[in-house]
Specification:
The complex is a heterodimer.
Chain A: E1 2-6, E2 9-13, H1 21-28, E3 47-50, E4 53-56, E5 70-72, H2 84-92, H3 101-114, H4 120-126, H5 136-153
Helix pairs in contact in A: 2-5, 3-5
Chain B: E1 4-7, H1 10-14, H2 19-28, H3 33-36, H4 43-47, E2 52-54, E3 57-59, E4 65-68, H5 78-90, E5 97-100, H6 104-109, H7 129-151, E6 158-161, E7 164-167, E8 172-175, H8 176-185, E9 191-194, E10 232-238, E11 245-249, E12 260-266, E13 270-275, H9 278-286, E14 290-293, H10 302-314, E15 319-325, H11 328-333, E16 337-345, E17 357-362, E18 367-371, H12 376-387, E19 394-398, H13 413-422, E20 430-433, H14 436-441, E21 449-457, E22 463-472, H15 475-479, E23 512-518, H16 533-550, H17 555-561, H18 567-580, E24 591-599, E25 602-612, E26 618-628, H19 635-655, E27 660-661, E28 664-665, E29 683-688, H20 703-718
Parallel strand pairs in B: 4-5, 10-20, 18-19, 22-23, 26-29
Antiparallel strand pairs in B: 1-9, 2-3, 3-4, 6-7, 7-8, 10-13, 11-14, 12-13, 15-23, 16-21, 17-18, 17-20, 21-22, 24-25, 25-26, 27-28
Helix pairs in contact in B: 5-7, 7-8, 12-13, 16-20, 19-20
């Protein structure tokens, strides 16, 4: 039995130790917003926050985690979809097919939490998710817009 | 332009079947379905008790407008664009619009009232704009007629805007929702008139997508997010060698693993592990000893395929002519200068972010499939075939796609497999998901071709003759042999080289011969976003650049001289050249390259701005792209598609290559089949310049100009011509 804290709630999981967090989220907890695409930590579709860091959950065995770490998935990013990244994404209609977007949003949110005013180079270095539809330019605009929203909120409910 | 007068087939609009209720309720009995297949929660449930205006429009008492969409949304924005077309004629309140998918089974039961479900070939809008607008116009007429009847006034005294009907003389008003029930009882009108494009209010507006919200918080259900009560999960492995078969497997250890239900043979070439979860199923599959009968292709390699193609470059055997005029032999003999080059374009995988998947439930009476598909009807046919049941006993529920790019339209191998597995668990839903590795190993690949081009220049440096010999794989011969021409030619091979039509050549070449030596290696080819225009645009547009340089002429001027009879192509080319600053001194070490094509009935051009450093590292700084699709239904979606096209087209140019060894694809995941990332993405300036009078495609055309524009810019930067791809294999300075 593994005890985890996911989206603020304690959960008990009974799976093989080697099961990646991604599949625990999807198949044990029904949190299907986090996506599988490569399974080897390359594409970023499965990005979640662990202790505030953007992490690719497909390569994190559940045995490496415990209840002391705050695990946040796309479903738990905000209660009412008003994270500055979600607001910016909505304003700019960022998603196309949308499959990579939960990962993209989680990567962007982690970057902004760390660096509220990222440069284009910061974005290039930190948001390395693959999108085959080709949303990159709107993702970039979205991150800059979210940074502006955070600034306007002056530390309100930004994260 | 005058209004379009449309005769209404009463039968078409009167086929209102109770089958609709049955079909929708099948889906609605499942809790996910109000989210997955219908945009508004609860709307569809109410729709069951709300009579439809016609196949396209349902209006509810609360004024909600449900617009039915037959084509699939896979990110390209068609869902929103099609809704705009219907709503334009309906004159409804856009803020009340929601959408839903009818099922292919309902379409079958209602004599194909929704016509084609196929979502490919950039056809979503251009292939259905007339009949979906008609659906909106007919519904509007009936709603106004109902209000007039209720008030006992002549219909022509009533007007409508934003779902509110007004009786002008009295000022009385009512809403669509209030008269919908009555309107649904009326006969459709004999004739309706579609609006003059100058009167469009919604069409042409950069309206926000209807499907964004759920994509921001994880609630959008994609095919493999589906959960059904009692569902099992399957992981599959098919023989990695093309054409190989399953010989045997030893499930003695694996079938005892906790959570594993059964190991099953699937068709004659695959084996699946069915378990409580996919992770368990896939882990067990990886541990399963499998013996394959590799069959006749076990020695196939990229080198042996290359030999086939090389032979086709000069052979007279199985050669088809796609376009010719004048006398090419005479023109080349009389040329003052000859230019010759051979290009090569590799196999590529669609690599949708969501790997192939389908969920099936089979009983001896019924087969249901839930899947992401670009063509619900083809998915239904695949399900019926695999189920062994009459097609009337089957249905497919379309789930949102995590990318399509052509992989999920003509091919439903994953549906057949899911049904074949589900048949072994009667009554239990089984969800099949391919691993990324399986997806890489069993694509329907962008076909491989080589192309030899020979051009002649006259004494003034003008193009006097052009001979294009394509050698390589035909998609149609493998996928749609019934679409081959009577002589066996695959005319889709000649995209961008055709004499006229949606994929016509953009130049008037005085003496021209374009041929295809059909060489079909046993690697399954498929329609891949753009299809054959991607490589053909490289062949033509890079070679035109080569000719211009050989003639000592400016590539823009050289093209312009051949484009007098192609004014729309010339217009998009001029637009990108002007905006990109063509002809002005290139500052800061950047260089420009051009490309122009007509394809999928749209005219597109690009000007790329690149630099190449001393070590050969490429940076693509900016691409200016222009598109003339005739009518631009939603300029924001067009801009998004054009920008996205460059990610797809440039990923292919930079990295896209599947190689073959021992009869199998060597690449297995994004480490050896990379895709472009944010740091490589250039700025994209999009010029949308609809000239009106025709309907062109959007999703695919611009991909074609991405690679040649960049390649021509690389030449401007380095003086080196790259004729083999992807660029990742090549040092641009040593090439």
């Amino acid at each position: 039995m593994t005890k985890l804290k996911i989206n603020g709630k304690p959960v008990d999981i009974e799976v093989d130790d080697s099961t990646p967090l991604l599949w625990v989220l999807r198949e044990q907890l029904g949190l299907t917003g986090t996506k599988y695409s490569c399974g080897i930590g390359l594409c970023g579709s499965c990005t979640v926050h662990i202790g505030g860091e953007a992490v690719r959950s497909c390569v994190v065995p559940v045995s490496s985690l415990d209840a002391s770490q705050d695990i946040i998935t796309i479903e738990g990013l905000t209660a009412d979809n008003n994270h500055p990244v979600q607001q910016a994404w909505k304003q700019l209609d960022v998603p196309q097919c949308g499959y990579c977007q939960p990962g993209m949003i989680m990567s962007a949110a982690a970057l902004l939490a760390d660096n509220p005013n990222p440069s284009d180079a910061d974005i290039d270095a930190n948001v390395t998710n693959i999108c085959r539809c080709g949303t990159f330019n709107r993702v970039r605009r979205g991150i800059h817009l979210a940074a502006q929203i955070i600034k306007d909120n002056k530390g309100g409910d930004a994260e | 332009m005058t209004k379009e007068r449309i005769n209404v087939s009463r039968r078409e609009f009167l086929v209102k079947s109770t089958a609709l209720g049955t079909g929708f309720s099948l889906g609605l009995s499942l809790p996910f379905f109000s989210r997955a297949a219908f945009a508004a929660d609860g709307a569809a449930a109410q729709a069951l008790s709300t009579p439809e205006m016609n196949a396209w429009v349902v209006i509810q008492a609360d004024d909600t407008v449900i617009i039915r969409i037959a084509r699939s949304e896979m990110g390209q924005g068609t869902l929103t664009g099609l809704a705009q077309l219907v709503a334009e004629e309906l004159e409804c309140d856009w803020s009340k619009v929601t959408t839903e998918y009818p099922t292919p089974g309902q379409n079958l039961a209602r004599d194909k009232v929704w016509r084609s479900f196929s979502t490919g070939g950039s056809q979503g809008i251009r292939g259905s704009h007339d009949y979906v607008r008609k659906g909106g116009a007919v519904a509007r007429h009936m709603l106004i007629e109902a209000a007039a009847e209720q008030w006992d006034v002549p219909m022509d005294e009533c007007t409508v805007a934003n779902s509110v009907i007004t009786h002008l003389p009295s000022g009385r008003t009512t809403t669509y929702g209030q008269v919908a029930s009555l309107a649904a009882e009326l006969f459709p009108p004999e004739h309706v008139e579609l609006k003059d494009p100058k009167d469009w209010k919604l069409i042409g507006q950069p309206i926000k997508r209807l499907d964004t919200d759920d994509k921001l918080n994880g609630t959008q259900v994609f095919g493999f997010d589906l959960t059904l009560p009692g569902m099992l999960n399957a992981a599959i492995k098919a023989c990695p060698v093309f054409g190989g078969k399953l010989k045997s497997f030893d499930d003695s250890k694996v079938s005892k693993l906790p959570g594993v239900h059964k190991v099953v043979a699937v068709e004659d070439d695959a084996v699946a592990v069915v378990a409580d979860t996919w992770w368990l199923a896939n882990t067990a599959l990886e541990a399963l000893p499998i013996t394959w009968d590799e069959g006749p292709n076990a020695r196939l390699s990229s080198a042996s395929i290359e030999q086939m193609l090389d032979e086709g470059l000069s052979s007279a055997n199985k050669v088809f002519v796609g376009n010719q005029n004048g006398d090419i032999n005479k023109a080349l003999k009389g040329a003052v200068k000859m230019v010759e080059a051979t290009y090569r374009y590799p196999y590529q995988n669609h690599a949708t972010m969501e790997p192939m998947n389908a969920t099936a439930r089979w009983t001896k009476d019924k087969c249901e499939v839930w899947c992401p598909t670009q063509n619900g009807e083809a998915a239904l046919e695949a399900a019926a075939e695999a189920s062994g049941l009459p097609i009337e006993h089957c249905d497919v529920y379309k789930i949102h796609l995590g990318g399509g790019f052509g992989r999920r339209g003509a091919f439903h191998d994953f549906v057949k497999q899911a049904v074949a597995i589900a048949k072994q668990f009667p009554g239990t839903p089984v969800k099949l998901l391919w691993s990324r590795e399986e997806d890489m190993a069993h694509g329907h690949y962008h076909p491989i071709t080589k192309c030899k081009l020979v051009g002649g220049l006259d004494d003034k440096g003008n193009l006097s003759g052009l001979h294009v010999r394509i050698s390589g794989q035909s998609i149609l011969a493998s996928v749609r042999p019934q679409w081959l021409a009577a002589n066996g030619a695959d005319m889709i091979t000649f995209q961008g080289f055709q004499a006229d039509g949606d994929h016509a050549i953009s130049y008037s070449v005085p003496n021209l011969l374009v041929e295809h030596a059909m060489r079909n290696p046993p690697v399954p080819p498929g329609f891949w976003r753009g299809v054959n225009i991607n490589q053909n645009a490289i062949y033509m547009e890079c070679f035109i650049d080569e000719l211009a340089h050989a003639a000592g002429k400016d590539p823009l001027e050289f093209r312009r001289k051949l484009m007098a009879k192609h004014p729309k192509s010339l217009a998009v080319l001029n637009a990108v050249a002007e905006k990109a600053g063509w002809g002005k001194p290139e500052a800061g070490g950047t260089h420009l390259g051009l490309a122009v094509v007509k394809t999928f009935a749209s005219y597109v051009a690009a000007c790329a701005e690149v630099s190449v450093d001393d070590k050969g590292k490429l940076k693509i700084h900016r691409i200016v792209a222009a598109t003339d699709p005739g009518y631009a239904v939603n300029p924001q979606q067009i801009e998004t598609q054009v920008a996205g096209s460059f990610v797809f087209g440039l990923s292919a140019l930079l990295y896209g290559e599947c190689t073959i060894k021992d009869g199998a694809v060597e690449q297995s995941n994004f480490h050896d089949y990379p895709s472009m990332r944010m740091d490589e993405m250039p700025r994209v300036d999009v010029i949308v310049m609809p000239s009106g009078g025709f309907w062109g495609g959007i999703g695919e055309p611009t991909i074609a100009v991405a690679a040649p524009a960049v390649l021509n810019a690389i030449f401007a930067a380095t003086g080196k011509r790259i004729r083999q791809f992807p660029l990742a294999n090549i040092n641009l300075r040593d090439a």
